[in-house]
TrEMBL record:
This is Iron complex outermembrane receptor protein. It comes from Mesonia maritima. It comes from the Bacteria. Transmembrane segments: none annotated. The lineage of its organism: Bacteria, Pseudomonadati, Bacteroidota, Flavobacteriia, Flavobacteriales. Residues 341-770 form the TonB-dependent receptor-like beta-barrel domain. It is a multi-pass membrane protein. It is found in: Cell outer membrane. Its main location: membrane.
Length: 801
């Protein structure tokens, strides 16, 4: 009986199959969702069958002899994410299938002929990749950026490091962290960026204001910190880096873990801890120079081609000791310290961080949403919030012991949006606007005269940029931006200071009332700033030539306007002026490069003329109840800067490579026909690298860095009457003469092992200042008191998993 029913079932099934109509045809077209262009040679496969066809030159395909019912197609293309596409066949059918072709938005960059996406197509820019950044895992972002030509650093000791781009720094250098413009009291020359270097996958430096999307006031340039692109696939991966150093007898640990899904969901957590004690110059301990840092960041979101969102939060906290010898008790000791070759205070090594010191905490929260519109472009909307709290401690006794001398709380809210019209291959446009509200609160509980006052600041900006591909060899780029700034402040002035500056004649209307020997004022300022850029790029054979003009305008920052007192972490008295106007920069730059073959190079000359350039120069010393300190005054001049950045490399053989870079900048005050202060000296770096992949990817390199003596500097030396043996002696205070040239030798070695089934372990060894050279750097604001760091051995272990 069982056999009988089996035979009946098979006969019935065969009749049903024969009765099906399998003569239907599916015609279709595979196009790019982004711009509607046909995708050539896409593979179209019917799942669970052997049917496979390819799209033709117009993106068309055809599949014959299909039966009625539901089928699933798998469409693949070399530059696209695979797509499973269900279709219901009820007759002859036509389907237009759209693939997600712009995989850079999905963390899978597959752009032929490009190593990265440029921020400015005709400006000067360079990028540091993760391999280089990991080398500086226990250092600062400023230390890492010195790897690039034309980028130097302005230091306050060893741990406070600010990037200087072609001679410009602080408020003129815009810092973008995970899509957020940093608001961390960047106006201070001794305020380092509050960014954990280990949260970055790459850092791009745009030299000059050619990238208008990020801001029109970036006269010096922009530093763009970008996170790792998370792929759209099921994965779990991470890394941990352990570093230990002999100089400072400390180290760091950083770790990150990422989980992603094929659906587009992802999450990432990352954290860093650093701890160092007193650092050491070749001949003595740099007392009270240790630092400690604690960072954590969280990130999650949904990454789909058509739409998605990204949420990011970071916490940054650092405690930094300020060299004890930079804080002096009286004028005699201050002058003796400046004119001496050794620090006045040298103690035994310790991990303790005592006053003078900084304690900085920074919170950053951002949420971003994007939506892509078919054959049009991409919309981005973003809100971010930042809270920065800066504490600066000085020597205080009695009830004030342990109380900060400076307590600044800065809150910033920013809302921004932009739409990028990028559906056409020949041209692209990007338009956007942003609004910003900021409030600064210097806590009066310090019971110390506030360096900068309470203020509220409102900013609004709108921009439009575009690029046009004239032909395969020529590309044009242009942009325009407008920024409005309103600043409302509340400030007390001593009457003597008010009258000394003749404010009683020009600003009597902002005085609200008198209180003892002080005036309470409410100054209000409005600034309207315009910026623009335009450039051309020409490519031929293995070469490319870029030319760019950038107009940038920057409103004075609160420090330049209002600074009025002792800046404790800088150990100087700073004085501003509310008469200052906006700076206006006109920068012309060229970039000529060759990036194919055994020998490659880049030559990047520039010329920058800045009207109403704001600078701060020393003008004497003053003795306060806190001690004796140099006086630095802001002033406004016209300035011009010109220079050149050079990079080159030569592939000597399959195992040896040679790298070199050179940078020079010349800055001059055209109003007073004098050199500008704090211009980086000419510097040259040469490196030889050996690599043998068969020996566990062994890499060895030796690097020589030469920094010339700065010969162009303003003479701000002065004489001061010093009481010696009961009589006043006129003594020269040399605060201008730059230190001598110096040469530093460094050594790097690394190799990779695979001790686990999955992942790897990389071991690296570095020696900085191999010859233990004693030197002082012109751009170190504490060079008056001590030498720079001596020899340092560092061992680093990196685990990938």
């Amino acid at each position: 009986m069982k056999t009988f029913w089996t035979v009946i079932f098979l006969i019935t099934l065969s009749f049903w199959v024969q009765s099906q109509n399998c003569s239907y045809t599916l015609k279709g077209k595979v196009v790019d969702f982004h711009n509607g262009d046909p995708l050539i040679y896409a593979t179209i496969q019917v799942i669970d069958s052997e049917i496979e066809v390819y799209s033709d030159f117009d993106g068309n395909f055809e599949i014959n002899n299909l039966c009625k019912g539901k089928i699933e197609l798998k469409i693949t293309h070399p530059d696209c994410q695979d797509l499973v596409y269900p279709i219901l066949i009820e007759g002859d059918t036509f389907e237009k299938i759209k693939l997600e072709h712009h995989l850079e938005d999905l963390g899978e960059i597959l752009i032929t002929g490009k190593k990265r996406l440029q921020k400015s197509k005709t400006g000067q820019e360079e990028t540091l990749k993760s391999k280089t950044l990991e080398k500086y895992s226990s250092s600062s972002i400023g230390d890492a950026l010195k790897e690039l030509s034309g980028v130097s650093t302005l230091n306050t000791g060893n741990s406070v490091v600010k990037p200087v781009i072609q001679g410009l720094h602080s408020s003129r250098v815009l810092m973008m962290n995970h899509g957020v413009r940093m608001q961390d009291q960047e106006w201070g020359a001794e305020h380092a960026p509050n960014i954990d270097l280990n949260s970055a996958e790459s850092i791009t430096v745009v030299k000059g204001a050619s990238a208008l999307q990020y801001g029109g006031d970036a006269i010096g340039g922009a530093v763009i910190v970008e996170p790792e692109k998370i792929p759209v696939k099921d994965s779990l991966f991470g890394k941990t880096i352990l570093s230990g150093s002999t100089n400072g007898r400390g180290g760091s640990v950083t770790t990150s873990l990422t989980k992603s899904y094929e659906s587009g969901w992802y999450g990432n957590v990352q954290g860093t801890f650093k701890k160092f004690g007193d650092y050491k110059a070749p001949d003595y301990v740099l007392s009270n120079s240790g630092n400690e840092e604690k960072d954590v960041s969280l990130r999650f979101g949904l990454n789909k081609f058509s739409s998605g969102f990204d949420v990011f939060y970071s916490y940054y906290n650092t405690e930094i000791g300020i060299l004890r010898s930079s804080h002096i008790g009286n004028v005699n000791d201050l002058i003796r310290a400046i004119n001496s070759r050794e620090p006045q205070v040298v103690k035994d090594f310790t991990y303790n961080i005592n006053p003078p010191k900084q304690d900085v905490e920074h919170h950053l929260a951002r949420v971003k949403y994007y939506k892509r519109f078919e054959e049009l472009g991409k919309l981005n909307i973003q809100y971010d919030y930042q809270l920065n709290n800066r504490l600066e401690y000085d020597f205080r006794r009695g009830d004030d012991k342990g109380r900060p001398s400076v307590d600044l709380e800065l809150q910033t809210h920013t809302l921004s949006t932009n739409f990028k019209f990028d559906a056409k291959n020949e041209y692209q446009f990007n338009v956007g606007l942003n609004g910003n509200y900021q409030v600064n609160f210097p806590d009066p509980a310090t019971e110390v005269k506030r360096l900068i006052p309470d203020y509220e600041q409102y900013k609004f900006g709108v921009f439009a940029t575009g690029e046009y591909k004239i032909n395969n060899d020529w590309l044009a780029e242009a942009g325009l931006r407008y920024d409005y700034t309103r600043l409302n402040a509340e400030k007390f002035y001593f009457k003597t200071r008010w009258e000394e500056l003749n404010y009683n004649e020009d600003f009597s209307d902002i005085v609200v009332y008198e209180e003892g020997n002080q005036l309470f004022t409410k100054p209000e300022f409005n600034f309207n700033n315009f910026s623009a850029t335009g450039g051309l790029r020409y490519t031929f054979n293995q070469f490319s030539l870029n030319g760019n003009y950038a107009l940038a305008s920057r409103a004075p920052n609160p420090s330049e306007l209002f600074a009025d007192g002792l800046h404790h972490s800088a150990a100087v008295i700073e004085l501003g002026d509310i008469r200052f106007n906006s700076e206006t920069s006109h920068k012309f730059s060229l970039n000529f490069s060759k990036d194919e073959g055994n020998f490659n190079f880049t030559i990047s000359p520039f010329y920058n003329y800045i009207e109403d350039f704001l600078l701060m120069e020393p003008s004497g010393v003053d003795e306060t109840i806190r001690g004796a300190f140099p006086i630095w005054k802001y002033k406004q001049v016209n300035a011009r800067m010109f220079g050149v950045d050079l990079n080159w490399n030569y592939r000597i053989s399959s195992n040896f490579n040679y790298f070199g870079k050179f940078a020079y900048v010349n800055g001059r005050d055209t109003k007073n026909n004098s050199a500008l202060i704090n211009m980086p000296p000419a510097n040259l770096s040469n490196s030889i690298r050996f690599q043998q992949t068969d020996w566990h990817n062994l890499q060895l390199s030796i690097t020589g860095d030469f920094v010339a003596r700065q010969k162009n500097y303003p003479d701000n030396n002065f004489y001061y009457d010093v009481l010696e043996n009961g009589e006043y002696q006129s003594t020269l205070v040399d605060i201008s003469t730059p230190p001598d040239q110096y040469f530093l030798l460094g050594f790097d070695a690394s190799t990779t092992f695979h001790p686990f089934k999955k992942g790897s372990m990389e071991v690296s060894f570095y020696i900085n200042n191999l010859l233990n050279t004693s030197y002082r750097d012109y751009l170190n604001r504490l060079r008056y008191y001590a030498d720079n760091l001596g020899r340092n051995f560092m061992l680093q272990l990196k685990f990938n998993y």
